[in-house]
Amino acid sequence: MHYKFPSFIIVAGLVITAVLVPGCATGKISHAEDVFINKAYTYEDGDELVIYGRVKRGYQNCCDSVRGHIDIALLTSDGLVIDAFSTLYYPHNIPKVRSRSSRFEVRRPYLPPDGLIIRMAYHSDLEAADSAAYAGGVFDCEQNMATPQYNNGQYRDIVTKTEGAAAKKI
Question: Domain for residue 136, yes or no?
């Protein structure tokens, strides 16, 4: 009688472990909503436009390796693409603990006109980043998810203001 209560606790612990651990360690999560752009903003640094932000791992994405890049497109208010490029984030594999986020920063050698839309989207593909076109922190992703033709509706927009680059945080 004395040993039944501790045995019950051990058995219950083993059952809970058997249910939770395989569920987290198996199944590959590859949905874009499991990774999202967080705290993105722009600012001017001399004659450069700086785009800064964080890419964050969703809370349901606890165990899988998350590697990809950020696609960025600069659009007019009419939706015309002026410039499109991509950048990597650091660390390359989004951490599974603490902040669960990585950071990215891009510098472009021009200032945006008023009303410019800066659209950013997470892209889970790394093929273009390995190409020789990667230089100066940016590369050309052939299927840029921030451009209208490839966008799946999961993006973040910043609209530049009259005073210069937007300081709007998202």
Answer: yes
Residue 164 forms beta bridges with which residues?
161
d(CA 129, CA 97): 25
Give the number of other Cβ atoms within 10 Å of residue 133's Cβ: 13
Q: What is the pLDDT of residues 7-53, one digit of tens each?
A: 666 666 555 544 444 333 322 323 445 788 888 989 999 999 999 99
**For position 73, which CATH number holds?**
2.60.40.10
Task: Give the torsion through C-alpha atoms of 41, 43, 47, 48, to 10 deg.
Answer: -20
Q: Is residue 109 part of a domain?
A: yes
Count Cβ atoms within 10 A of the Cβ of residue 157 and give its class: 0-12 exposed, 13-18 middle, 19 or more buried: middle
Q: Which domain holds residue 99?
A: 29-159
d(CA 21, CA 5): 24
Distances (CA, A) of 150 to 32, 142, 146: 14, 10, 7
Pairing of strands 35-45, 48-57: antiparallel
> Can you name the residues that pair with 48 across neighbouring β-strands?
45
Residue 86: both structure tokens together: 């991509």
- What does residue 132 show for φ and ψ, rounded to 5 degrees? -70, -10
pTM score, whole prediction: 0.70
